[in-house]
Specification:
alpha/beta; 44% helix
Length: 177
């Protein structure tokens, strides 16, 4: 379980970093980022990312499965790039998947991550209710699930990291002005 907790810390840290990376140029001043988590504050979570990159019980590298819903917008492309850059920096292996807006594909991707016994799942869910079953399967497998920007209606979601759209809009308006 210790390795899964570290993977979870890394997953939420990567999610936070990717949201920071994908923002506007003034993001350092005000990121518009918030996290809902039962495992301490956002700063405690992000600071825990640098603790370790390996599961000390098994000696294997940490693997995080990532399921994005689309790569059609510049935001989503930046999100994917931010995830990969953060993972590279933290020496975490990623399995990156894109469901192209298909709910069944995303469900299958999450099930594949469970079969592969990833240490954590980071997902941008397409539907809050339709993915409950697969998220609960991950919970039964003791795999923490972290959602980005939207969540799944399940107690098995470890944390949801959301961007503040109002703040991002304000920042974009300031940038344009």
């Amino acid at each position: 379980m210790k390795g899964r907790h570290r993977a979870g810390v890394l997953a939420i840290g990567i999610a936070c970093l990717l949201l920071l990376v994908s923002g506007c140029s003034s993001v350092a001043e005000n990121s518009g980022l918030s996290a809902e988590t039962g495992e301490g504050s956002l700063s405690e979570t992000v600071s825990g990312v640098s603790e370790t990159q390996a599961d000390t019980q098994t000696g294997r590298d940490i693997v995080i499965g990532v399921s994005l819903n689309s790569l059609r917008s510049p935001f989503m492309i930046a999100l994917k790039q931010g995830i990969q850059e953060a993972a590279d920096e933290l020496e975490v292996e990623l399995i990156l998947s894109n469901c192209n807006g298909n709910l069944q594909t995303q469900s299958n991707q999450i099930r594949d991550f469970i079969v592969q016994e990833v240490d954590a799942i980071l997902m941008e869910p397409l539907d809050a209710d339709a993915l409950i079953e697969v998220v609960e399967e991950a919970g039964e497998a003791d795999i923490p699930v972290y959602c980005v920007d939207t969540t799944v209606t399940s107690d098995d979601v470890t944390s949801t990291i959301v961007s503040d759209s109002v703040e991002m809009g304000r920042m974009a308006a300031e940038y344009i002005a």
